[in-house]
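Section: protein folds

Sequence with per-residue tokens
===
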Amino acid sequence: MKTVSREELYELVWSKPMTKVAADYGVTGTALKKTCDRHDRETSVDVLMCHCKYASTEKGEARLGDLYEVAGQALKSVQFCHKPKRFLRNMMNREKRRLERGESTRFDVGTIGQLRRLYASWDQYRFEYKVWVVQPAISKAAVTQPILQLLGFVEKALIDHRRIPLTVIVRK
């Protein structure tokens, strides 16, 4: 039987599907998962979807319009969260198109290669989603009732339909 360190095991299970690693070591996927759990290997994937839009003008009414746009993006972004494989495929396709157009990556952490490996073994993980709405043009002191109502609606929709928490970031 082969012996590997915790670090080697971590690299192996993130470099290729867990089922292939398990086969390489002559164990079942369940046995490998239990071994990983004993070694504190994370089996959850944290997905943070950030939505931000600069204010189109300095007027408060425009900020509400900007917030409507970002709120729509936030709600639309979670449409595949109940189907992780489809969510990952959508992410890969979008990233591929961005890179083909010469645009910069949207990934803050990870690479398209890591996303492909995650896609290959998506059923081995639990996905945890979070949505952030970032509005630097809105100050906390100047938040209006319509803004609060819109954010309340978005938060309720995310929690009720997908159990996804919403975080809103504004200026102090």
User: Anything to note?
Assistant: Residues 1 and 25 are 7 Å apart (CA to CA). Strands lie at 44-52, 126-139, 166-171.
